[in-house]
Design a protein that fits this description.
409 residues, Inosine-uridine Nucleoside N-ribohydrolase, Chain A, two-stranded antiparallel sheet, binds beta-D-ribofuranose, binds calcium ion
Length: 409
């Protein structure tokens, strides 16, 4: 888990967009082209050939700039849990994030929306159902999300998360089924029915969230906060530039970062500091409840695989930290940044660049163009995210382990 992800590509045939779509998968495929045509202010040149592309200002870039709103402050009434949708690609650390949310009275999970990422959707979807069955929470709807990124081939990380996404641990086939709505549909419906009430916790590639925003741009105003596990201001784990979730679907990430939603980026800068030890795994294994037992098995299998592979055996629990930041505000420290997502780099797509206001927000020099007035390369600064820049790992594990073992006071 703490070793770098390496790219795995899953091919996908081209599909012509016909307009109306009846599934997240079709929306995703159609969106590959639509993104190029319609996305905020894009004028892409030679995008399919990986050539240099020119982009006009995004809606975000031309907005007036001020302080990033604090997305960590709960919108829930005092004493009431914060209501959340978990968008996820389970995934070892996704499983820990889901378990933590389910066992935390401060949170109420309204839906889980699996997306293709660590493993393909035909594994992340049943994995989400399995995890809910283990936790005896089959009352929570699970809606199938996108099987592919908006415009790119799917890159997965089965070599990190095991062939089944849960470290190879075999759990029973789920008895429950996903709901009929797709992930973007259920996200839309729940947000529209509860404007200002639902926080999104996105711990996989951001395809589902971007599809929901693309289908319904007003939705952004109804989301009080989004906590994202993804990105990094200190180097990637998929490439030297990009963290996995952003690497998989940079175009989706850009839509989300540009949407003016109060956003917390819980990136590798902090998640790499939250490593499970064998002692933590033993505590999970010793507790006699299904969630703790399942978490222990998944982490034990990961630990043993890494040990036999001669790797450092500390396991990063990236996604669980994003959930923890909604339960305990002070588990991370935050700083305002204007975060741009690189989408055109041949080697750097998915990189997150953070401007903190001390220097100009400056783009690369423009390509020669016949346009009489090219857009400026320097932009006014306005933060669009609170980036987690510090973490208290002990505090995180003092929250996580007792919640999973059931020994929390
Ligand atoms: C992120 O990538 C995935 O492999 C993990 O589940 C996490 O969401 C870390 O880079
Ligand atoms: Ca994940």
């Amino acid at each position: 888990m703490n070793r770098d992800h390496k790219s795995e590509q899953a091919g996908e045939p081209e599909k012509i967009c016909t307009g109306a779509t009846d599934s997240a998968r079709e929306q995703s495929l159609c969106t590959r082209r639509e993104f190029l045509a319609h996305s905020t202010g894009f004028a892409v040149a030679g995008a399919t050939g990986g050539l240099a592309a020119a982009r006009s200002l995004s809606a975000h870039e031309i907005r007036a700039r001020g302080n990033a709103p604090d997305s960590s402050v709960s919108n829930a009434a005092p004493g009431k849990p914060r209501r959340i949708i978990i968008d996820t690609d389970p995934g070892i650390d996704d499983a820990m994030a889901i378990f933590l949310a389910l066992r935390s009275p401060e949170l109420k999970v309204e839906a889980i929306t699996p997306v293709a990422g660590n493993v393909p959707l035909d594994l992340t979807l049943p994995n989400a159902l399995r995890l809910l069955e283990i936790a005896d929470r089959t009352d929570i709807p699970v809606a199938a999300g996108a099987s592919h990124p908006l415009v790119r081939r799917l890159a997965t990380a089965g070599h990190v998360h095991g062939v089944n996404g849960l470290a190879g641990v075999e759990f029973p086939e789920p008895k429950t089924k996903p709901v009929r709505e797709t992930a973007p549909e259920i996200i839309r419906r729940i947000l529209r029915e509860n404007p200002g009430e639902i926080t999104i916790v996105a711990v996989g590639p951001l395809t589902n969230v971007a599809l929901a925003l693309r289908a319904d741009p007003e939705l952004a105003n109804m989301i009080p906060a989004i906590a994202i596990m993804g990105g990094s201001l200190s180097g990637g784990n998929m490439t030297p530039a990009a963290e996995f979730n952003l690497y998989v679907d940079p175009e989706a990430a850009r839509i989300v970062f540009d949407a003016n939603i109060p956003l917390t980026m819980v990136g590798l800068d902090v998640t790499r500091k939250c490593r499970v030890s064998e002692e933590h795994i033993k505590q999970l294994e010793a507790a006699n409840n299904p969630v703790s037992q399942a978490a222990g098995k998944i982490l034990r299998a990961t630990y043993e695989r890494m040990r036999h592979g001669g790797e450092v055996t500390d396991i990063d629990l990236h996604d669980a930290l994003a959930v923890a930041s909604l339960i305990d505000h002070d588990v991370i420290t935050r700083k305002d940044y204007y975060v741009e997502v690189e989408t055109v780099g041949e080697w750097t797509a998915g990189q997150t660049l953070g401007y903190d206001g001390h220097g100009p927000v400056r783009k690369s020099p423009q390509m020669e163009t016949s346009a009489p007035e090219p857009p400026p390369t320097e932009l006014p600064y306005k933060p669009n995210a609170q980036v987690a820049v510090g973490v208290d790992p002990d505090r995180f594990f003092r929250l996580l382990i007792p919640r999973l073992t059931g020994s929390a006071g």
